[in-house]
Amino acid sequence: MNGKYVYFALAALLGVLCAIVTFLPFFLLTFIYFYVLTKYKRFRNAQIYLVMVIFAAFFLVGGQAKTKNKSVIPESNSKLMIEYSQDPKIDGDLLQVQAIDKQFKEKLLIRYKIKSEIEKDKLKSKSFYRCLCKVSGTMKKPAAAKNPNGFDYRNYLASKEIYWIVEIQDNPLQHCSTLKPSPLVLIKQLRFSGIRYLEKNFPPEMASLSAALIFGDRSMLDHELLGDYQKTGIVHLLAISGLHVSLLIGMVFYIGIRFGFTRQFMTNFLLFLLPIYVILTGGSPSVIRAALMIFLVLITVKWNYHVKLLLLDTISLAFILFLFISPLVLFDVGFQLSFSVSFAIILSAPYILKGYQNNGIRMLFTSVTAQLAALPLLLYHFFEVSMVGILANLFYIPLFSFVYLPGLYVLFFIQLLFGKTPQMLIDLVLKIIKFSNHLIDFLADFSFVRFIPGKPNMIMLGVYLFLIVAIFIIWEVGDYSKKRLHLLVLAVTLFTFQSCWNWLKPYGEVTMIDVGQGDSILIHLPHGKGNYLIDTGGRIDFAEEKWKERGKPFEVGRDVVVPYLKGKGITRIDKLILTHGDMDHIGGSLSILSELEVKQILLPSVTEPSETELAIIQVAKKQGIPVIKVTAGDQWKMNESEFFILSPEKNYTGERNSGSIAFIAYIGGVSWFFGGDLDQEGEEKIRKKYPKLKIDVLKAGHHGSKTSSAEGFIQQIKPRVALISAGEKNRFGHPHQEVLKRLNATNTIIYRTDLHGAITFHFYRGTGTFSTYLP
User: Fold this and answer.
1) What fold characterizes domain 79-180?
2) Which residues, in sequence order, are CB contacts of 436 under 8 Å at separation 6+?
3) Which CATH architecture has domain 505-541+549-772?
4) Which of 526, 554, 550, 522 is nearest to 538 (CA)?
5) Would you say the pTM of this structure is higher than 0.85?
6) Spatial separation of the C-alpha atoms in residues 542 and 271, rounded to whole Å
7) Of the four, 252, 661, 719, 746, which is 20 to 30 A from 185 by CA?
8) What are 80-112's pLDDT values in tens digits?
9) Are 83 and 131 in contact (CB under 8 A)?
10) CA nearest 400: which of 203, 207, 213, 205?
């Protein structure tokens, strides 16, 4: 059976996919898989039956997990008895901690807004373990995604079997009693104490990196630095991976042998140590995978090799065990990336990587192998891949593996044993850390090496997998005359086919993106002929005390608009149309300018631009982006689409909303009116100037406020459809009932982002249809 466990792992995967994703396609794929095993792999009947049994078992396990993946706690519950099950995460004045409801045995996410800096310091220093607490709060469903390509927090928490967020008003440790410790809780407390010890005794840069590599906790890492690691594609190094676990276990084994312990004793000791280590490091999928693999290898050693396992067998068995215990982990990005990359490297090592004798070249192609294996998953989840990561790995993998990991462990134990670490060693490590941080910041700015074709659909994922497998197969076979040509053609196809489809696609769209209480509208013309973004959303951030500031506060442009655009494969904005200077319309612009290529910025011709407008103009000047002040009468045309500016007049001096850019567009056989926050006074000027104006689709002014969408204006233009961008349960009461009544009086179909999420008009030539992201 050696080398065949991978086929059982595939059967387990198909069983779970049939149960929890979609049945028919994966069931058909399973039949094809059985046929291939019988016809080409020459599996005997007994082996085929075993594969079928494994498929059926995992289908049942997956089905049971899907059935149970729902809450049993009534929404009306306001008083709960809970036990905290994880370390608290404190970000600014927000505390979040996982807990288990003692009555229903269900996980909850507890949120508490800290009231003072003194209280924050006390909560940071206290362990929440062994606390049985009475809390009162409001049960809320986690936020669901309201835009395509948006992060779905509800699904994310559901995959971890958390269905409710409980917002409490009192200190989470106020009404608590102490429980007897269990071994599991003691280990978790040890982890908490270790992280706090690092924070107290080492400089911030060193403590945060040590916490990540020793205890698997990245909460102390600077968010900008973490973003740089993500942009360069080497963030996996900040997670404890198989390489780290293997190095650490190897070090412990070697030290034990040098101290005179027998191999048998050290094997037993490591078998005992591994589960403890998994808990100490936070139990991430990559750690569990590595620990399971090493555990299986040690078991075979303990049994004196009566059972022989290849490396491929150990990862296959680890996959089967992991999936059996927790089928929903299949949705975890870390699980997907850890196993896909590890499988690829293990499968390629005997046939591809062994052909490269030079260590540097072998490491380069190992990095290429890992990048190819991760490519479809990275595009599906994050919509982009940084190709600079292939080269960055050549420097950072040895740095982390042979400098940071052993060095930080040594310094940690020196500090534990002697209560003080030599300043010379701390200074040396700090210099290395600061140099590597500066380098990663430099590499993160290499935007031209980012591959952003958009989020692939299931068909495209299949194409990516086919091309990647084809590359590995041709790479593996011996030399032949056209091998390099075939590899080149496949590689070029891999990195161009989705982008080519984006360009060839004859469909266009107009989408009102749900940015909460703000505006942002994308106009995407067919064949990539034009991408126009009308406003970027944003919100007003009031000055907070330093202790209340979040490490990475929510920013609409970065967290909503940019992911939406990148998920569409849009990296170029031909015209960034900023209707006026209010933050809820242009607050996200700086993120757009830093993440995407902007060809031109249109601003209203006003005598007193806002501070945000001035900041945008300054950044545009640095980047060489033309800024055009538009006025009534300006126009442009792109193929069959036309755009006419109706207001403001040149050098407008009045109220900011009245000076919004208002324009008509003819797109997809439909006439549109976009007016920013244009008020009734501005609408009246347009109505008088264009008495015969008729509009098919109205973007309601000022989020449906009664200061816009005047009755006379609505009665004249008689829109068939009205789009209203308003935040869910916003404090302004938008849209106002008066406006809704005016629109209903003309039988206008109303779409609202607060109710429907993103609203899209897909069109092909002269016809199109509206759809909403939420049903």
Assistant:
1) OB fold (Dihydrolipoamide Acetyltransferase, E2P) (2.40.50)
2) 396, 399
3) 4-Layer Sandwich (3.60)
4) 554
5) yes
6) 53
7) 252
8) 999 999 889 999 999 999 999 999 999 999 999
9) yes
10) 213
